[in-house]
Amino acid sequence: MMPTVAVCVYCSQKIEEKEKSVDVPHLGGVAHLACAQSPAHVVTTNAYGGIIGQSRQLREVLAKIDKVAGGDANVCIMGESGTGKELIARAIHQSSPRRDRPLVTLDCTAIPEGLMESQLFGHRRGSFTGAVEHRNGVFALAHTGTLFIDEISELPLPLQAKLLRVIQAHEFVKVGGSKLIRTDIRLITASNKDLREVVVDGTFRADLYYRIAVVMIQLPALRERRDDIPHLVEHFLHKFSTVHRRPVPTVTPQALELLTSYSWPGNVRQLENCIEQAVVLADGATIDVDVLSLDEHEPKKAAGVTPSAPAGLTLREVEQEHILQTLSAVDGSRTRAARLLGISLRCLQYKLKSYAEEGGEPIEAFGGARTKYTLGV
């Protein structure tokens, strides 16, 4: 079952879910739970204080964590970069019987291929050039605890075979050594690639995949759980206001609409960076659209939304079609469309209203396809 308490992400105090909701002024009155002894803070509706959000997709992930945390089954976490795979791994460890034992992390993208075996299993002095002393690898360091191997799809094939043997036999040998060393660890792995696809490609062993993915947890991209964006924004506002010693600013409705509708290719990590930058650059106590640096991250389809206009169209028809295609490219967000068009939101709303009052159907798109955006006042 899901935990029945909520956790304030600022003071880490557990509170009962039955406590009343309060308005959070920084997001225009969005209601959240708050602990009675602290200001109106956003809280998570789960027992994992570092995980922010209340969306259905996130609740499904947390429900799976609840099921796997109490055992020792190997867990594989898949999701795009920036979705919080390491945070989920920490939540599993902290909710497990091994919580008081070490949690050791190995990032496969940060280790040169020639040193990876030593990082995994350790080495004996003199086993290779530069090995001037004995050293333990992550399997020894994580003994009786949890080992988290991030971006495991980057592990070279020869080492995949050695890792498979360790998982099966629960023992390993240091580089340059001959003594078998027993290991007792809970293994959690993560990848920003679909491991089933890299197995088909031949760059990842199928037998290793079945060993590490006893339980698979798929993390949703931030664009798939937009309901959590206001919660995350509020959390990062408080976090970075404290870090940079500034008063907590208020986010305008237009800025919140832009943040909520944006595609976030960098996921939560990109949102965190965006809010920190906004807190630093904001003049006064308000964050508006002009301090949100998102244009450089826009998908390419929104960068150039229309090809050259064919002959025979009036200037007004060209303008209307360009506006409608821009709206279609940004999924109907008027705030984002206005920024791309270089006009004010009020100007865009006026133009759309005039188009709707004319009662005409959208004209044929320059590329031959009909504009998907529907006019509305």
How does this structure look, described?
The chain folds into 3 domains: 70-218, P-loop containing nucleotide triphosphate hydrolases (Rossmann fold, 3-Layer(aba) Sandwich), CATH 3.40.50; 223-300, Helicase, Ruva Protein, domain 3 (Orthogonal Bundle); 303-358, Arc Repressor Mutant, subunit A (Orthogonal Bundle). The protein has 14 helices and 14 strands. The chain has helices at residues 56-69, 85-94, 116-121, 138-141, 157-169, 195-201, 206-212, 229-243, 253-261, 267-281, 300-303, 315-329, 334-341, 345-358, and strands at 5-8, 14-16, 21-24, 30-33, 43-44, 75-78, 103-107, 146-150, 171-172, 181-182, 186-191, 215-218, 250-251, 286-287. The strands form 5 sheets. The protein has a 5-stranded parallel β-sheet with strand order 7-8-11-6-12. A 3-stranded antiparallel β-sheet has the order 2-1-5, with no helix packed on it. Strands 3-4 form a two-stranded antiparallel sheet. The model is unreliable at 1-46, 296-307 and 361-372 (pLDDT under 50).
